[in-house]
Structures are given as structure tokens and as C-alpha cells.
Write the C-alpha cells for this entry.
Amino acid sequence: MSSDAVVKSEAVNEPVNTGRRRFLTISTAVVGAIGAGYVAVPFLGSWMPSKKALAAGAPVEADIAKLEMGQAIKVEWRGKSVIIIRRGEDVIARLAEIEEKLHDPKSELETQQPEYALNQHRSIKKEYLVLLSWCTHLGCSPTYTPEVRADWQGGFICPCHGSKFDMAGRVYKSMPAPSNMIVPPYQYLTDTRVLIGVDQGVEA
Ligand code: FES
């Protein structure tokens, strides 16, 4: 994403229904070419919670209403980036086709993952993937690379030592990374609002 594609960051206050009715400050970076297609503009933007929320490790809310098919947003939570991607039917179908190339296609080796990460699509809703943008080798941030080529079905490529992950964050065989990318705890507040940091089924 070129820097001139970023229009502006704008701070807004979003109420989060946590029982204590916390208020998080979220800033939004909007990409100028929204709607141009995910190959050209894979990132819709990012949300940055307030310093206070970051320091407290508070849950962070993300608005996914404007996320188009194939696009991604990043949200900062507990010092790490969380990436949310909207996947089309074609992407979801390919998740089954490449399983033999993956180290742990059903996340059966995972020990600290939410229950909803232990399936083929690794998410609560198949359409939306929520992942820590954090490589399980040495913690670099894998690059979202959705473009499909003859030898690549889309996914994430780590710039540090080349680990490759599919469009569900599942690591390919024989990579430096020992396990799949991590799914953080999250839940849907509404169809278009995701709360990161609180598990599904736990009162927010
Ligand atoms: S940190 Fe990602 S491959 Fe090493």
C-alpha cells in the first residue's frame, strides 16, 4: 500500500458494551481506493485504540461493515496487530483443496487456541478470518498476499525466514514456523462489529 493511498486518520469514540460500558478511542485510516478490488488494494485500513486502552490490554472493537470481499483491516490489540480478512466462497473452497500441503490442517496440534479456531476455516464465521499478524517462528509480521498464482493459493508470507501460511493462517509443511498463526479470542457484538480480546460466549 503506497503512503499516498492513505487519505487521513480520524479519531472517533465508540462505545463498547462491556457491562462497565468502557469507551475506547479508535482511529481509522482509510485507503483512498476502497472498492478497487482486493488484488490492487488488499487493506481497507487500520484501527488504533487509545494509549489508555492499549496500556490496559483492553478489548478492542473493529467495525467490519465496509470490508469488501478480499479486503483486510488491521487492529492493534495488546501490542500486536490483529488482521481481519473477508474471504469469498472461492477462497473458502480452496481451504479444503490444499490440506495435504499443510503441517496441521485442522489445528489438531494447537493447545492454546479458541475452540472456533479448530476447524478448517479457523473462524466463527467462514467469511471473516481474525488472526494475530504474528509468525509462530520468531514473531515477525507475515505479509498478507491474497493474489492467487499457479504455485500459490493466497495467504501470508513471512518476510523474515519465508514461512508460508494459507488463507486461514495454517502453516505449510517444512516451514520454519512450527504451528499455525494464532487466532485471538473474539466475538461478534453485531453482524458488523467484532470485539477482540473477549472470547465468544463470555459476557462482554
Ligand atoms: S519469523 Fe517468520 S519465518 Fe521466521
Observations:
- The pocket of FE2/S2 (inorganic) cluster is lined by residues 135, 137-140, 158, 160-163, 176-177 (CB under 6 Å).
- The two ends are 34 Å apart (CA to CA).
- The first strand starts at residue 6 and ends at 16.
- Helices lie at 51-56, 89-97.
